[in-house]
Amino acid sequence: MKTLIRSVKIVSKNSDLNGQVKDIFVENGNILHIENEINLEADEIIEGKNICVSIGWFDLRVHPKEPGNEYKESFQSMEAAALAGGFSEIALLPNTKPVVQSRESVNYLKRAGEKVKFHPMAAVTLKCEGKDFTEMIDLHQAGAVAFTDGEHPIQNPDIFLKTLQYLSQFGGVLINRPEDSNLTHFGQMHDGLMSTFLGMKGMPQMAEEIMLMRDLKLLEYVLNTPFTELPVDKSILHFSGISSAESVNLIRMGKDIGLPITCDVYAHQLCFTENDLADFNTNFKVNPPFRTQEDLDALWEGLEDGTIDAIASDHNPQDEESKKLEFDMAEFGVIGLETLFAAINTYNEKISLEELIEKITVNPRKILQLPIPTIAVGEKANLTVFSEDEEWVYREKRIISASKNSPFIGKTLRGKAISVIV
């Protein structure tokens, strides 16, 4: 297979080719030529007005529904959605049925992707119940890229502490979404003026911030424990889905004192506030919930100054029976693989394209300690071709995911993936 990409702007912040417009020739998965003009026969020619190319996009947080809930999303529809969104690699949460807690389940997920590389994350505790540990060393050796209870934040501080101590012995990465579930029980949306106006039980941002403070303090304790050895310049603890201004400040302070931490924000959190729930549209029911404009501004500032390392989709398909209900009965979650780049590109007013792309290419791989592809002659192709300027309307009938629970339905977005080449 020979692919020629014509007159494409290279977007790769750390590359000497960054910002240059070149022709790129790929044959059998290898980049053979990068020149001003290439006149070679190709099986596929990709061209267009003002198109760009970067290394393949990487999503840090995807909820696979197979095995167990294939009616919400199969491997095939998830992979198709990822390709449509420009992703060549995705990291999968362990909350399937059965839970990813064995060598066999890790290997099963690793083999499931055909055109998109699946990176399984394994459970910290058996069945993600927060009680008994999985065999983390065995799972690490099988290929688990990180450890997390995924949809279930680790509530028990002793479990959290011992996990950090355990993973520090082999450089594993713990991913936790900070939430004290005792403070969010039966919550439906952000605890604020809108929840009061709508008569909904709120989910206070304090629940996120208290858990963040706890986790940071436990990490400090582990670092001060004798014989604890950590990889140089690598994070052992990653916070997923921060959503409040104070959370950004806590992460910033933790980094300032040298704690080995990273964090991400979900793309939809960068686009909406609590006010968007005024009409009870369950496609806006997410966890963490959409918060205030002040929080939204702080998230963008955190991205701009590097406090927030990456942007993830938190792609969580839910079928009609789970969403077309009264608001308090509906499931949390939105799909996001197909709209991640378009959403952040549309709502972005602060960050350069190079910085934005780095948040969905280089940094996710750094967090998971995975190889970072490069755009250079002789390298294996791992590329995403995209348009920064194309405007399009995201309509339900064009959704590729098996589920349709998106808050962006009917909205005009700017920027679109064109092709993934691996």
UniProtKB/TrEMBL annotation:
**Xref: Gene3D superfamilies:** Metal-dependent hydrolases, Urease, subunit C, domain 1
What is a single Pfam family found in this protein's UniProt entry? Amidohydro_1
| Top EC class of this enzyme | hydrolase
Per the database record, which ranges form the Dihydroorotase catalytic domain?
56-218
A Gene Ontology MF term for this entry? dihydroorotase activity
Q: Has UniProt tagged this entry with the keyword Nucleotide-binding?
A: no
- Keywords from the UniProt entry: Hydrolase, Pyrimidine biosynthesis
In its UniProt entry, what is this protein called? Dihydroorotase
The Amidohydrolase-related domain sits at 246-397
**E.C. number(s) listed in UniProt:** 3.5.2.3
